Sequence to fold (660 residues):
Amino acid sequence: MEQPVTGERRPVAARRWLDAAWHGNAASTALCAVLAACLLLCIWGYTAVRLDDEAQQALERARIENRDVASILAAQLDDALASVPALPDDLAYFLRPYREISRKAHGRIEIAGAGKDVLAALQDGLPAGGQAHADDACLLEVRTLLRHGLQVRVSQDRARVLAQLDALRWRLLSQAALVSLAVLSLGGAVVWAARRRLRAQRRQAEGAHITLSLQLARERNRADLLATRDELTGVANRRRFYDGASGKLLQARHSRNHYALLLVDMDRFKQVNERLGHLAGDALLQEAARRLRHALREGDLLARFGGDEFVLLLCEVASEERLAAVAGSVLEALRQPFAPPAGAAILATASIGIAMYPRDGQSVDALLSSAGSAMHGAKAARDSFRFYDMALNLSSARSLELQGRFELAMREDEFCLHYQGKFDTARRHIVGLEALLRWDHPHHGLIFPNEFIGLAEETQAILALGNWTIAAACRQLAQWRVAGLPLVPVAINVSAKQLRDPQLLDTVTRCLRTYALSPALLELEVTESCFIDDISQAKEVLMRLRALGVAISLDDYGTGYSGLSHIKMLPIHTLKIDRSFIRDIAIDRNDAMIVASTIALARGLGLLVVAEGVESGEQLERLRRLGCQQVQGFYLHRPAPAPAIAALLAGARPALAPAM
Fold:
């Protein structure tokens, strides 16, 4: 008794929705639109499922055909050749009964020897030569006759199998398109009628509503500015800074870069107020706030805490040396003369205290306290900055010293190259070298690149240093060749700024020509940070280098931002897995899975895989089982100068060189 009643209610409900939409009911109009969208999704979902099902069935039929033909032909060959002492010269005889099968299936049937050389083949029913490519685009079935050293391979082109479904595909798509067009036409008519009626009703109240909204927005903005902005300088006040800094520190927990709080206090500000008046003091603070804004990057925070104190929160700073450089640039900006509206120019300086997160504090208050202590130390010297951690003050002083010596170091030829070997995992033979830059400082001794490369990038010396590295590596290869040593490719690290240098290609070409080297002996290693600013320019440069014959490696894979997209877009030849994933590969299941998937991905894309940071035999064995082709690390070879590498090349076997 209930079923007919339910069936009668549905048309009534549908008529009510259409009637409500026609008379301008917005909720019912939206409901009609949702119903139409759901219907379209059902139509196209069914079509997609149907097409996919037909494609899978066609592919499965092709696989079954291949399997049957391969099995029958293999059995026939096995029986026919069982009593024959030697293989006949012409095996095409056995393929003749399969001509019609090959023609109808648009497939290929091959009989191959032990060396996988094709002895007889049919392609589309006709005798064929050569060898088909067994890739993902083919449906391949292989049967091996171990007794005769033969293989039977039956394959069909996946695209040609699916092409047979074109007629069905167009028919289903046409039907879905016609039904969708009808649904959209009906839905569009209903929505158009509803919108026309609603537009007339809304237009009447729109004027008053807009006026009221504008008034409320102006009042809200004014209240927000008064509550969160410093009235004198226009920068954030204490309340706004606490809110913003707390959110930034939450992000800092998951960042590998540095976050730091800088407390800036103007020197002798009290004397300016006393001698020149408060108007001059206010002008000085306004100009100081303007210069601080220009010295900061987007994403950093600036606030005035009252009086002559400003607080800065620097986010995502690459290194402590870079942080010291930013503090120095802030002091330089504030050191320039101030020109008040009336009166003589004012020479003012500032003192800065720096606290690092999370080393010097894990909350805004703790960082402010540490920065305040450091700032009092800077006040004693004036026009300077101090870290809360005294060790960083010594480090920043050394960084400034190194930064000022780059030009002299280049002239005095203080830089040198050490080399670390790359080895084949199967035989542990040396297959390549990586050139590692070192600074042989006259006072500090041998300095590693992590201490001076960042400084070189800040002073633009990185271009000259990178060009010197390319020339030095090519010169060393030429010297080894003259000495009669076997040569292996040498990899050189390229920075982001060097990759944007328009002279890079000319530099590489000139060095190869000068030392008469094959481009295959040179490999350039880039990191994903090189592609952040302008990936199109980087792609163009790398494509031209690859066309020259120079191999391109993606270094530190897994630590960047969008590695898979870069692998697809760029002419990458080698993928180097970062040492952070190799360190615990033998004990950490997650690291092992990441490395295994990376190796499988790279090999599927035809890339060479190199694992960095191998420091134990267990790591090496695990990588070998996972299919990693090459490794480098302290277990096999430590970085060494050129003479030690010459001995390694002469012996052509791994040697444990002393740590340098």
